[in-house]
Specification:
The chain has three helices and five strands. By secondary structure, the chain is of the alpha+beta class. The relative contact order is 0.21. The model has no long low-confidence stretch (mean pLDDT about 95).
Length: about 130
Amino acid sequence: MALTRHIHVTTQVEGLHRWPDAGPPDGYLASSHRHLFVASVEISVAHGDRELEINAVARWLTTVLGSFADAPARPDAPVDFGAQSCEHLAERLVAAITERYGTHRRVRCTVAEDGILGGGVQWEPSPAEAGQ
């Protein structure tokens, strides 16, 4: 088995969201409710010498995640992710990561509500891209 490397970055954004189609017994989820949306990302790298600087990636990731929401109604209110699920947010993050850092990297992303319940996605480069 070959050794592979990745960086790991976690960030969080306070926000609201809702699941408009929620039914019993979870109908309360149809109303807007607050969470800390915790995004955890792994991005493959070719070597262990800060190919991607984790601090820079973390700052950028926080900005990108927040950009997927509507601005808060008041300056002291959380942003509003609307009807986006954790999986939706993870998909959007992976798309932004592959656009910025290339499609030749494996990317795994999980978004969890309050850091405990969530969903995620994984991008696997094609074999031709993985060799870049």
